[in-house]
Amino acid sequence: MNTAKDLFSYRKNWAHRFGPAPVLPMSRKEMDELGWDVCDVIIVTGDAYVDHPSFGMALIGRVLESQGFRVGIIAQPDWKSADAFKELGRPRLFFGITAGNMDSMVNRYTSDRRLRHDDAYSPDGKGGLRPDRSVLVYAQRAREAFSDVPVIIGGIEASLRRIAHYDYWSDKVRRSCLPDSKADMLLFGNAERAIVEIAHRLAANEKIKDITNVRGTAFMTTDIADSWTIVDSTDVDQPRCYQKQADPHYDPYTSKPDCSQQSDSAEKSNRQVVTLHTRPRGLDRTHTVIRLPSYEKVKSDKVLYAHASRVFHLETNPGNARSLVQRHGNRDVWLNPPPIPMTTEELDHIYELPYSRKPHPTYGDAKMPAWEMIRFSINIMRGCFGGCTFCSITEHEGRIIQNRSEKSILNEIETIRDHVPGFTGNISDLGGPTANMWRLKCKDPNIESSCRRLSCVYPGICKNLDTNHEPLIQLYRKARKLKGIKRIFIASGLRYDLAIRSKTYIKELATHHVGGYLKIAPEHIEEGPLSKMMKPGIGTYDRFKQLFDQYSREAGKEQYLIPYFISAHPGTTDEDMLNLAIWLKSNNFRLDQVQAFLPTPLAIASAMYHTERNPLKKVSRESEKVRTVRGARQRRLHKAFLRYHAPENWPILRQALKRMGRADLIGNGKRHLVPSWQPGGKHRIQKGPLQKKKFTPAKTRFTR
Question: 406, 380 in Cβ contact below 8 A?
């Protein structure tokens, strides 16, 4: 793995003499009280300001403050004009723009594109306090307010839109948000390293346009220096033409490509583009850039979009990733390689900064639903090597697990115990993107830095993965022994395919860390959708459940697993959903909440949804087609199968069962999936748990 300068080894900016602020200022009055004449950096965010390390604006703000910079916060500004963006005056170095902890479109709309009326990251959960595509709007308003101040965009919304991407809400391919926002730079992934280096370089009077070599950043360019070797993306994954130029106009997936044509960029610069017949080897990665198909091409050609998605994801390992470039009109979006993961010491320092751990005082008694949920929880790690295709963690935090130390975690528990109002002795979570990947890693750093697998656990757990849960078990035990701590709960998502490698861990979990229910996510039971999700088969869930139930009984506790499932995921058929409904009923599950697949930008599953191709394999005109669920009625049907027990779903289910030739599942007996009648009059639904007698459908059971 490449090395990086220690995050806290920079010489501090002169303003460190002011010391840490009780909370970062949100008004000119607060700046005056701190003795500041200006802010060095102003962070604009779509979330209410909560000074807690689980909130991006607080974490980045405190990291910059620790470097000696004066940081102000503009939270949920009125975006109708630029006036709110002038509240703290002109920042000395730059505006930092983020939509907040959630993508603004995911935050505002359901998977059915319906408007949400609440927002967990706003005071009293009020919705509508941020604009759609907040990064674009905020960046443009900041530019209006002070046209000469650099604008840097970041956070999850910018990360997921750093190249041309399919936008579910408009049902079209949109440009990278960098040119649309008119920002000077985009930061993707965990941004601490990049933001600190950029702040120090700007403070040293470098121009933002000259800062082009920082990992985890993207910028616009019109030229590529001669020192760089350009590799066409089709050489990286599926060579079809041996004399092609960068971003060619011909179709690299036709059976007889015309290799004589040149790209716009090649025509203008007459640059020679390296020709490779196999996977690129022997090149200096630090001066190699891969040219993806242009925005104009992926917009008009779904196969090229799927190809670009595949190449993009093959270049996400910070140990071997190369720079990427994608033409937008007459300019290129240039993406440097992903940031180097944080060391344990750096991560400890970040989470031990002087957060007040509560909302800014200006909010008074307003409730902050997101803060209420995490105020007594602790983030112990970052990243996820699961590689689930529908998840945004890979594109944002990466696959390398970044761990905090045991000492730092235990110290934070004591900080919460001693300083957070309302603490009753219960820690609501020790986790992160996953509950049980803390300290799990590749056994060989050299293998890790050269690996191009999209998942360490699919289709099976990699033989090079260290799955030892003993350090996590010891952490749990030490946390429980701390004075004043009653219970330590685990609420983050659990990778049960890893957990079954350690019966001791499952026993520890079931005995001490479950409050009656444990949420896990098998997502489906059928191989079709599971193979497109990169999730393990249902047999793995069955083995985990057997052990969990066993250890719960031994502990004298009545505890249950609450499985999460996704409807309408690419690769899912109506028959798959029917089989899942049968499985749910046979296992006495009645789901209250269900999740319909939501295509988020850059996710592999989103590429499947848009292109009906499978980027997990080599992409061509003849490659595997992926069945997608698009129409509102079919999406509703798939959700209805998950809630087969709800009377409002019975009409659509009865129609579907008849169409599918499974009318034998309609009836009033225990072996039927849905009744033949609707509630009302003398027919009323009996409330209560399902019958204990095992459900067996009329026809042959499906196999798994």
Answer: no
CB 660 within 8 A of CB 666: no
Amino acid type, 558: E
Q: How far apart are CA 39 and CA 92, in angstroms?
A: 6
Distance CA 351, CA 58 (A): 11
pLDDT at residue 258 above 80? no
Tokens matching residue 212: 């082009």
HSE-CB for 108 with a 13 A CA cutoff: 16
Helix, strand or coil for residue 402?
Answer: strand
CATH 3.40.50.300 fits 14-218, yes or no: no
How distant is the alpha carbon of residue 195 from its chain centre?
A: 20
CB 214 within 8 A of CB 324: no
Q: How far apart are CA 277 and CA 193, in angstroms?
A: 36
Distance CA 129, CA 138 (A): 13
CA atoms of 515 and 526, how far apart (whole Å): 30
Q: How far is the CA of 37 from the CAs of 34, 72, 224, 651, in angstroms?
A: 9, 12, 41, 66
- Round to whole Å and give the CA distance between 429 and 374: 8
pLDDT, tens only, 570-595:
999 999 999 999 999 999 999 888 89
DSSP 261-276: ---HHHHHH----B--
What is the β-pairing status of strands 402-403 and 517-523? unpaired
Instruction: Name the amino acid, one letter, at 535.
Output: K
Please tell me the distance from the alpha carbon of residue 630 to that of residue 622, in angstroms, as a whole number.
22
Q: How far is it, in rounded angstroms, from Cα 260 to Cα 245?
A: 9
Measured in degrees and rounded to the nearest 5, phi and psi for residue 26 equal -115, 5
Q: Do the Cβ atoms of 590 and 642 come closer than 8 Å?
A: no
CA distances to 233, 250, 613, 617, 625 from 622, rounded to whole Å, are 19, 17, 10, 12, 8
**What is the average per-residue pLDDT within 475-483?**
98
- From residue 252, how far is each of 245, 303, 367, 431, 444 by CA, in Å? 11, 10, 55, 44, 37
| Residues 76-99 pLDDT 10s | 999 999 999 999 999 999 999 999
Q: If you count DSSP H runs as helices and E runs as strands, how many of each does the chain have, helices first? A: 25, 23
Contact in structure between 601 and 165 (CB atoms under 8 Å): yes
DSSP 98: E
CA-closest candidate to residue 653, choices 684, 628, 676, 686: 676
Do residues 303 and 611 lie in contact, with contact meaning Cβ atoms separated by under 8 Å?
yes
Q: How far lies 182's CA from each of 137, 140, 141, 177, 265, in Å?
A: 10, 7, 10, 8, 22
Instruction: Give the count of beta carbons closer than 10 Å to the beta carbon of residue 132.
Output: 14
H or E element in which residue 472 lies: helix 470-481
Reduced to 3 states, what is the DSSP secondary structure of residue 539? Answer: helix
Domain extent listing, the chain: 14-218, 229-329
Exposed, middle or buried by CB within 10 Å (0-12, 13-18, 19+), for 335?
Answer: buried
pLDDT digits (tens, 9 = 90+) for 118-136: 999 999 999 999 999 999 9
First to last CA, the chain: 40
Rounded Cα distance, 139 and 132, in Å? 13
CA angle 468, 471, 472 (to 5 degrees): 95
Handedness of CA 158, 219, 610, 624 (dihedral sign): negative
Residue 520: the pLDDT is 92
Can you tell me the distance from the alpha carbon of 55 to that of 67, in angstroms, rounded to the nearest whole number? Answer: 19
Separation CA 539–CA 518 (nearest Å): 18
